[in-house]
Design a protein that fits this description.
Homodimer. This protein has helices at 46-59, 77-89, 103-111, 130-143, 157-172, 188-199, 251-265, 271-283, 311-318, 323-326, 328-332; strands spanning 18-21, 31-36, 69-73, 92-97, 115-118, 147-148, 179-183, 205-211, 245-249, 292-297. With 337 residues, the chain is α/β, with parallel strands linked by helices. Bound molecules: 4'-deoxy-4'-aminopyridoxal-5'-phosphate.
Length: 337
């Protein structure tokens, strides 16, 4: 198959590979596939959401270079996706971030010419940065002429982008997707996939994967170390009932999931990919033989070299745990850690 010529970098968004994982669970009677969203040009699943939220407004002339400014709050991946699109069309972008945003992501944003606006205070009630970031976005939008806030938490074009994500998965497997493991932040990926599954009457059990300490599925709010998935506030448009099953995963379980993936599949994946992998480890005993199981891997591990893939960082937060990904059977018991 020859590779297509893309008409500009944004043409490369979507159409990511689905890879069968053969070494992860050697004695598992079902096939496991990973949708590698790191293959999007901005490096994550959020390229799809960013394109979906911005392209229509750019094409219709609502967003104009030199006159419009996009303002958005993001922990990293959506920001990078938007940075790429705004740079491509020459539109100014102010990204509101917090101290959890990594130096590497900040450097990427600056390289795209983004103005980074850092909030430093947590919201006194939720003790999270998100409400403060949103407050800051509102201030900026109210004072900058021509400012536009896509608002990934409430914009229906965010989940809409992921109906295509699910279509790609379903088409690759002739509709035989028995289980889909999907991590959640805004809930955009899960919502879009759920809609496609329902509309096309796929036989899929949708397993929502959330961070321990996230409130998306009604869990208690608590401290979380890893950015990307999980949320301190449930977005208004997110319906937790769209998931048939929910698995909560701790930060350590994400690390174990990621390190296991690297060890057995040579895939260097991001934290939420580790989350869905660990969730599969916890859920696998409930999956009958002969099924197709799909995991969505939202981003790549390069963005977590100073955390998940740093032995010093892992030791500082969890002690000596390397045996967890070096002994095959312990992965299945990852829920115990
Ligand atoms: N994983 C990573 C690495 C992310 O950046 C995000 C989005 N913040 C998610 C998972 C969750 O995706 P969604 O917003 O579509 O729920």
């Amino acid at each position: 198959m020859s590779a297509p010529v893309l008409h500009g970098i944004l043409d490369g968004i979507g159409g990511t590979p689905l890879v069968e994982l053969t070494g992860l669970l050697p004695r598992f009677g079902s096939r496991v596939f990973a949708k590698l969203e790191a293959f999007n040009p901005g490096g994550s699943v959020k390229d799809r959401s960013a394109l979906s939220m911005l392209l229509g407004r750019i094409r219709s002339g609502d967003l104009v270079p030199g006159r419009s400014t996009v303002v958005e709050s993001s922990s990293g991946n959506l920001a990078i996706g938007m940075a790429q699109i705004c740079r491509y069309f020459g539109i100014d972008f102010i990204c509101v971030v917090d101290p959890k945003t990594t130096e590497q992501n900040l450097a990427i944003l600056r390289a795209y010419g983004v103005t980074v606006d850092l909030v430093t205070e947590v919201d006194p009630e939720t003790r999270a940065y998100l409400p403060t970031r949103i407050k800051r976005v509102r201030e900026l939008v109210a004072t900058i002429p021509g400012a536009y806030w896509p608002n990934q938490y409430a914009n229906p074009r965010n989940p809409l982008a992921h109906e295509r994500t699910m279509r790609e998965i379903a088409e690759a497997l002739d509709g035989r997707v028995d289980y889909l493991f999907c991590s959640t932040g805004t809930g955009g990926t899960l919502t879009g996939c759920a809609r496609y599954i329902r509309e096309h009457r796929l036989p899929t059990t949708l397993v929502g994967v959330d961070a321990l300490g996230s409130v998306l599925f009604g869990g208690a709010s608590g401290p979380r170390l890893l950015p990307g998935h999980g949320a301190a506030v449930r977005p208004a448009l997110f319906d937790p009932a769209l998931a048939d099953e929910v698995v909560h995963v701790s930060d350590l379980e994400c690390v174990v999931g990621c390190r296991t993936l690297t060890d057995r599949e040579a895939i260097l994946a991001g934290g939420s990919s580790g989350a869905v992998t660990a969730a599969l480890g916890k859920f696998a005993a409930r999956i009958p033989a002969g099924r197709n199981v799909v995991l969505i891997f939202p981003d790549r591990g390069d963005r977590y070299l100073d955390s998940i893939y740093s032995d010093d960082w892992v030791r500082a937060h969890f002690g000596e745990v390397s045996h967890l990904w070096q002994e095959p059977d312990l992965f299945m018991a990852v829920g115990a850690c």
